[in-house]
Write a structure and sequence with these properties.
The protein is flat, with a radius of gyration of 19 Å. It has 5 helices and 7 strands. A 4-stranded antiparallel β-sheet has the order 1-2-3-4. It is α+β, with helices and mostly antiparallel strands and about 210 residues long.
């Protein structure tokens, strides 16, 4: 084995160290993606996806290049490994990879315009003197218009630092907003229990209750 020193760049993920802590991002990956798609000089926007976007499969709508669409969405999904702000938007556009239309591709390009404004965003890890675990969950109700399924999401903080996050469509139809929320809470609890077990195996067994 050979000591290569502190990690700086791995699988297109940049690792920056300072007195404040460790910052991970994919700025170069974002700039390369914008250059590759011809969006490097595009007009930036403030949000990756409009609220109540109403994206769905519309019969008779103009189709688009499926290979191009799948390639771009795949890159956005990989980018969401260091960009929690893209998790929901990437999840939405990935629903149409089997049958993309032009309005779906337009939504992808809007995400690229958002990236033009925020190329250097990432995740910061700082020392806060504790390993308290907090988790937050949320869910919509019937937001997926093609099947009326709901979308739930969660993120977890360990020691005040963001460590996991996820946004995913629920597998069954929720009969009420309360049911959709409870299913989202169940996913959050599952993640908390997994992190709790992992911390215990690493020698940092929890000393108090976790908050959801």
């Amino acid at each position: 084995m050979k000591d290569l020193g502190n990690l700086k760049y791995f699988l297109r993920i940049e690792v920056l160290r300072s007195k404040r802590g460790i910052f991970i991002s994919q700025k170069k990956y974002v700039l390369d993606l914008l250059t590759e798609t011809g969006m490097i000089d595009c007009k930036p926007i403030d949000t990756p996806l409009m609220m109540n976007h109403e994206l769905q499969i519309i019969e008779g709508a103009d189709p688009t290049d499926q290979t191009l669409y799948q390639k771009l969405v795949g890159k956005l999904i990989y980018l969401s490994h260091t960009r929690p702000d893209l998790a929901y938007a990437a999840g939405v556009v990935s629903r149409f990879m089997h049958k993309p239309h032009k309005h779906h591709l337009e939504a992808v390009y809007k995400i690229l315009r958002y990236l033009k404004k925020t190329p250097g965003r990432g995740v910061m890890f700082e020392k806060h003197g504790h390993l308290d675990l907090h988790a937050f969950t949320d869910a919509d109700w019937g937001g997926y218009r093609d099947s009326r399924k709901s979308t739930s999401g969660y993120f977890t903080l360990v020691g005040g630092n963001l460590v996991t996050w996820k946004s995913k469509r629920q597998k069954v139809d929720a009969m009420s907003s309360a049911e959709a929320e409870f299913r989202g809470i169940a996913k959050g609890i599952t993640e908390v229990l997994w992190i709790r077990k992992l911390l215990t195996e690493l020698g940092y067994a929890p000393k108090k209750s976790y908050k959801l």
